[in-house]
Specification:
CATH superfamily of the largest domain: FAD/NAD(P)-binding domain
CATH topology of the largest domain: FAD/NAD(P)-binding domain
Number of strands: 24
Distance between the termini: 27 Å
Shape: globular
Length: about 500
């Protein structure tokens, strides 16, 4: 059997991409090395992840948002969950996020500066548990008919002009396309000869759960010190960074003695650890593939880009890759993709990766244990506590500022479509569940209705007024929820047709 697409990696990115491809009724095989999807680091507290606006909107539009609720378990001494017990939640002001540990607050954010956002069930940020996220995506993939094979890691592949032959632990699989979603140490990326460039690590980060004989020696919260940075959440959850150029990461086993020595060095205390319950290391290494496609092989998620987990943007970056790639690869396989559509995946998503990697590097610069970094920290603290500062940081952290350069002069083109509410109460999000494009015609233009018939197999047509038009008359929305074309008072039929041809190919195909 030859599959339409073989995906390496059954993490959130691989599973979400598989679901996107199944919307087009393509045959999809996912190969995953791990026998069991469950792992302690995917659960609270270390498994907690923040979802940004583009990710929340993607899940909302595909009917997945309700499946992402965080489970109520891991109770603390006060009866609250581990998530609500985290130090950054126990504050009088509601934090909106942080930059290198410096928080901005929601009461400072001026949402009036985002004129194309409307009230929606999809908010700007939410917390999820990694295990729950993967479980929800796996359930959806299974229900949609995705074939997932566990215990099979991709070892290599050969590609021709027509297909890719994949080797996985003695078995051979054939696919018309192969997508590497197999993480930062991606075999697909290495075997495919993708160039992976960037900056080397400055520190080893530690995430630890441990017992302590004298926990009162550590102050709860996040703290910069002359030797590094640590965050402590009672009774025994610790994150810390040691600026050792990443020397300890994956070079030797993590021991109680090593963790205690690093903690004492960074905290400046003689705290004693009694046992090590869970521990992992990470670094700020930031690398990115120079291209996301080679022939019939593509990369997405951590296989295409890696950076430190500071600010929690890696998961969102990868899921954004999947949302952008899925419909374009599907159109290519169906044969109705316009020229260059699949290449637009790389041209749109690579710059987004560049911005996120630089955002991560900037946080590292602020965290360095130096006098100049502490001086810069003081300035950032002042700026982030202003209205303009908090709004800017929210735009970046929440993903509100995301806009693809589509070469269109309308300020909404390239942005996420607002969640318009139709006069009958239907929301736009409910109209994008099938992975097709959408014409929104608020004035029921006869020429646009006639034009839409040519793409009726790829683009839905809705003629309805909405409760808040935002000054618009009609829009063309891509399957990933990005506005491809927008018209205000007057309608240019030729301009609308050109936009449809650019993203959906010729009419009637």
């Amino acid at each position: 059997m030859i599959y339409d697409v073989v995906i390496a990696g059954a993490g959130p990115v691989g599973l979400f991409l598989a679901c996107e491809l199944r919307l087009a009724d393509l045959s999809v095989l996912v190969l995953e090395e791990a026998e069991d999807a469950r792992a302690p680091l995917k659960r609270l507290p270390f498994g907690m992840r923040g979802l940004s606006a583009p990710t929340i909107e993607a899940f909302y539009r595909r009917g997945l948002l309700g499946d992402m609720a965080m489970p109520q378990r891991a109770k603390d001494d006060s009866g609250g969950s581990a998530a609500t017990a985290a130090h950054w939640m126990q504050q009088a002001r509601r934090p909106g996020g942080h930059f290198a540990g410096i928080q901005f607050y929601e009461d400072n954010i001026d949402t009036s500066k985002w004129p194309y956002r409307l009230p929606s069930p999809a908010g700007t940020s939410m917390m999820v548990e990694m295990e729950q996220l993967e479980s929800a995506l796996a359930a959806r993939a299974n229900a949609m008919g995705v074939e997932v094979r566990r215990g099979l890691s991709v070892e290599g592949f050969d590609q021709s002009d027509e297909e890719v032959t994949i080797r996985a632990r003695g078995e051979m699989f054939r696919g018309r396309w192969l997508v590497g979603c197999d993480g930062g140490r991606s075999t697909v990326r290495k075997a495919g000869g993708f160039e992976f460039v960037g900056t080397d690590p400055e520190f080893t980060g530690y995430s630890v759960q441990a017992g302590m004989a004298d926990a009162d020696k550590l102050r709860p919260g996040r703290h910069y010190t002359p030797t590094g940075m640590y965050t402590y959440s009672p009774p025994g959850t610790i994150a810390m960074v040691d600026f050792d150029a990443g020397a300890y990461h994956r070079t030797q086993p993590i021991t109680l003695e090593q963790v205690q020595a690093v903690l004492r060095h960074i905290s400046g205390t003689d705290v004693t650890l009694t046992d090590l319950q869970l521990a992992t290391t990470w670094t700020d290494r930031a690398h990115q593939a120079t291209a996301y496609r080679k022939g019939r092989v593509l990369l997405a998620g951590d296989a295409a880009h890696i950076h430190s987990p500071l600010g929690g943007q890696g998961l969102n970056l990868g899921l954004g890759d999947a949302m952008n790639l899925g419909w374009k690869l599907a159109a290519t396989l169906r044969g109705d993709a316009p020229a260059g559509l699949l290449d637009s995946y790389g041209s749109e998503r690579h710059p987004v990766g560049v911005r996120v990697l630089d955002w991560s590097r900037a946080q590292v610069a602020l965290m360095r244990p130096s006098r100049s970094s502490r001086a810069l920290e003081a300035i950032i603290r002042d700026l982030i506590d202003t209205g303009d500062g908090a709004t800017y940081f929210a735009e970046r952290v929440w993903g509100v500022s995301l806009r693809y350069d589509l070469g269109d002069s309308h300020p909404l083109a390239g942005r996420s479509v607002p969640d318009f509410e139709l006069v009958d109460g239907t929301r736009l999000g409910a109209l994008l569940g099938q992975g097709k494009g959408l014409w929104l015609d608020f004035d029921a233009h006869t020429p646009l209705r006639a034009l839409a018939r040519g793409w009726s197999d790829r683009i839905g047509y809705v003629a309805s007024d909405v409760k808040d038009r935002l000054g618009l008359s009609a829009l063309l929305v891509r399957p990933d929820g990005i506005v491809a074309w927008a018209a205000e008072a007057s309608l240019d039929q030729e301009d609308a047709a050109q936009a449809a041809c650019r993203w959906f190919g010729e009419p009637g195909r």
